[in-house]
Amino acid sequence: MNLPTTADIVIIGGGVMGASAAYHLAKRGMKNIVLLEKEEFFGTGATGRCAGGVRYQFSTEINVRLSQESLPMIERFKEEIGQDVNYIQCGYLLIATNEKDAATFKHNVELQNRLGVPTQLLSGDDVRARLPLLKFDDAIAGTFNQKDGIVDPNGVVMGYVSAAQKMGVQAISKANVTGISVSDGEVRAVQTSLGEIQTRMVLNAAGPWSGLIGQMAGVSLPIVPLRRQMFTTNPLKDVPADFPFVIDFAKSLYFHREGEGLLIGMSNQNETPGFDQNVDDDFELVNLEAAIERMPLVEKASRASHWAGLYEVTPDAHPIYGGTDVKGFTVCTGFSGHGFMHGPVSGKLMSEYILDGKYSTLDVSMLDLKRFEEGRLIKEYNVV
Ligand SMILES: Cc1cc2nc3c(=O)[nH]c(=O)nc-3n(C[C@H](O)[C@H](O)[C@H](O)COP(=O)(O)OP(=O)(O)OC[C@H]3O[C@@H](n4cnc5c(N)ncnc54)[C@H](O)[C@@H]3O)c2cc1C
C-alpha cells in the first residue's frame, strides 16, 4: 500500500494499543486514519510476545476497573469483531509464601470484592489441594478468580486491524517512523521510511519504543524497556485441561497451559533496561530450575520454544493516557507488563479522548503524563 500524503490521525505502532485505537476511532466515524507499523507484520512487538494472560486480580482500583471494562470486550470479541480469540477462563491462582504477601492478598481480595470481582481468598491447604502437581509446602495463602485466564494476542490484534481496514483505516507495515515535525507547539507531519505524512494528530502507541517516539516530538516520556522471557514445553499429558494460570508471587514465577504443554516464565529482577530481545540463556536455566522445584514433572519435559520481549515500564507501573504539551501529540503507553488485557478498553478510551476531549467509558484522567512531574503517582492500594 502506498503511503498517503495526509492523514487526520497517524497512529504509530501496530500492537494491541494501536490496532484497538484504530478500530475504535473508525467505529466512531473518524476518516483518514493511518496506522503505521515498522515490522513486516502487525502485533510482533510486546503484544505478540506476551503470555496472553488476562485478569481482574489487581491491587489498585483503576486497574481492576480497566479489567472490568476490557475483559468483557474480549468475551464479546467474536460477536463484535468476527474473530475468535480463544478466551480460556482457567482462572489465575496467585500464591503467597510469606506473611507480607499474604496480608497484601487479603487487602487485594477485599478491594476486588468491593468492586464486584468475586475473587476467593484461599488458605495454604486450599492451594495444595487445588494444585496436586505442584510442591507448595510453604504456601500460606492464595487468591483465585475463575474469569481470569488466557487469550490469543495475535487474534486480538489481527481482529482489530482487519475490522479497522474494513472501515477504511490504512494499516501500513514496514513503515518505520523516523521523525515528527512540530512547529509552534503543534504536530505538523510524521516522517517514515516510506515518506512523509502531513497530519495534526499523532497517537504514540509504540509500546516499549514509545519513549523514542516521544523524543521525536520533543516530549519526554518516562518509559523504560525491560526484557522478560519465557519458554513452552512439549505436551504433558498429566497437566489437566482446567489447570489455572499459577503465579508464585515471591519468585514472580508463573505457569499456564499452552496447547497441551505449559508456558513457563519468570521475571529477572536484575534485568537491565534496554531493547535487547534475545533470550538470556543463563536466566532461562534459573527459570527452569525454579520451575522444576515447584513442578517436578517439568524435568521430564522438553522445550518446545522460547522467546523474549520487552515490558514498557513507568515509574508507578500504571499506563499513560492522553495529551502532552505538544498539541496533537497523544500517548497510550506504559502498561508495565499487563497491557495486552487492557488493550481493548484503552483503544476505546483513546478514541473518546481524541474525538470528545474526555473519557466517558471510565475516568482515567488521573493516568495522565503530568502526574509524574506533579508527583501524583498512583499508589498501591494496599502496600503493607
Ligand atoms: C514477555 C511478556 C509477557 C507479557 N505478558 C502479558 C500478559 O500475560 N498479559 C498482559 O496483559 N500483558 C502482558 N505483557 C505486556 C503486554 O504485552 C504489553 O503491555 C502490550 O502488548 C503493549 O501493547 P502495545 O501495543 O503498547 O505495544 P507493542 O505490542 O509493542 O506495539 C508497539 C508497536 O510499535 C511498533 N513500533 C515501534 N517503534 C516504531 C516506529 N518507529 N515506527 C513504526 N512502528 C513502531 C513496534 O514494532 C510494535 O509492533 C507481556 C509483555 C511481555 C514482553
Please name the defining characteristics of this protein.
8-stranded mixed beta sheet, alpha/beta, 11 helices, FAD/NAD(P)-binding domain, 384 residues, 19 strands, 6-stranded mixed beta sheet, 2 domains, binds flavin-adenine dinucleotide
Describe the SSE topology.
Blueprint: E1 9-12, H1 16-27, E2 33-36, H2 46-49, E3 53-54, H3 61-75, H4 77-81, E4 92-96, H5 99-114, E5 120-123, H6 124-130, E6 141-145, E7 149-150, H7 153-166, E8 170-172, E9 177-183, E10 186-192, E11 195-198, E12 202-204, H8 210-216, E13 224-233, E14 245-248, E15 253-258, E16 261-266, H9 281-294, E17 303-313, E18 320-322, E19 329-333, H10 339-356, H11 370-374
Parallel strand pairs: 1-2, 1-12, 2-8, 4-14, 12-19
Antiparallel strand pairs: 3-7, 4-6, 5-6, 9-10, 10-11, 13-16, 13-17, 14-15, 15-16, 18-19
The structure holds flavin-adenine dinucleotide.
Can you offer a commentary on this structure?
- The chain is an alpha/beta fold and 384 residues long.
- It has 2 domains: 9-50 and 153-223 and 316-374, FAD/NAD(P)-binding domain, CATH 3.50.50; 88-149 and 225-312, D-Amino Acid Oxidase, Chain A, domain 2.
- Helix content is 30%, strand content 25%.
- The protein has 11 helices and 19 strands.
- It has helices spanning 16-27, 46-49, 61-75, 77-81, 99-114, 124-130, 153-166, 210-216, 281-294, 339-356, 370-374; strands at 9-12, 33-36, 53-54, 92-96, 120-123, 141-145, 149-150, 170-172, 177-183, 186-192, 195-198, 202-204, 224-233, 245-248, 253-258, 261-266, 303-313, 320-322, 329-333.
- Helix 1 packs parallel to helix 7 (153-166) and helix 1 (16-27) packs parallel to helix 10 (339-356).
- It is globular.
- It starts with 8 loop residues before the first strand and ends in a 10-residue tail after the last helix.
- The mean pLDDT is 96.
- Flavin-adenine dinucleotide binds at residues 12-18, 36-39, 44-47, 49-53, 176-177, 205-209, 228, 230, 309-311, 333, 335, 337-341.
- Residues 12-18, 36-39, 44-47, 49-53, 176-177, 205-209, 228, 230, 309-311, 333, 335, 337-341 line the site of flavin-adenine dinucleotide.
